[in-house]
Amino acid sequence: MNEISTNLIESLKTMGLAEYEAKVYSTLVLFERAEVKRIYEYLNVPKPSVYQSLKGLMDKGLVMMVSSKPAIYRATPPKIALRHLIEVHKNAEKSALEELEHLEKSNLEAEDSEIIWTLFGENNVEHSMEELISKAKKSIKVLLPTEYIDFLSFVTNKDLKIELLIFGKDTSLASRYNLKNLTVHDGHEIDVLDFGDLSKYLDSLPLPPEQYAKSIFIFIDDNEFMFVPPYPGKTKSGVTSKNPYLIGLVNIIAGAVWEHTPEVPLE
């Protein structure tokens, strides 16, 4: 007889079932239909936990009683059950988002623009990338590694002025992401000699040239930015801020870099 995998139980828990509910539902799928005794003997769990789980599963529409004497239970077919769970999650997501956005607009304390925040870990970096790109209202200046190009799909206003620097010549980006005011610059064409005396300091950085393509830089609406340096390591880390001094400095540096980086003709 097939065993119920830990991966299956964890997946069902992620979709909103309690652990015993996930185990009971999976057991009913395995047996097609079963009495309570068969379920708790197979799972080796307390009888009250099975009854409680069956009640919860019936309330969720995932289990039905097909006989009352003796009580026999049957699982809703998996495709229907999972689709129902997804719909429940989507409705909950919509409701929660409306409430949370209302709370967000009612912030009791304004963010201190002087603070320089640190980003640590890939998840934090990616969440900050999505947040900045999606909330931009006027402009985006962005440097993205190849593996993060799909973050352009988070642009909500397709008419935004977007200046993208990548290390390559992808000419299809504007049409692929429906970006109507996109310019693309190829980082491979940067000549450090264009930066005059600064070029000797750039050349002395302890970083192989190919590593620069791993940099992440996002600058939105001329008032907020994030930067993740390209230094190799197991954990991504960077900074993000609205600090006026840093914004001024970032604006100067980014302007110089983009100015000296050739534009790629787009389709």
TrEMBL record:
Organism field: Methanobacterium bryantii
Protein name in UniProt: TrmB family transcriptional regulator
Residue ranges annotated for the Transcription regulator TrmB N-terminal domain, each copy included: 12-79
Domain of life: Archaea
Keyword hit for Coiled coil: yes
Record lineage: Archaea, Methanobacteriati, Methanobacteriota, Methanomada group, Methanobacteria
Coiled-coil intervals, chain numbering: 86-113
Keywords: Coiled coil
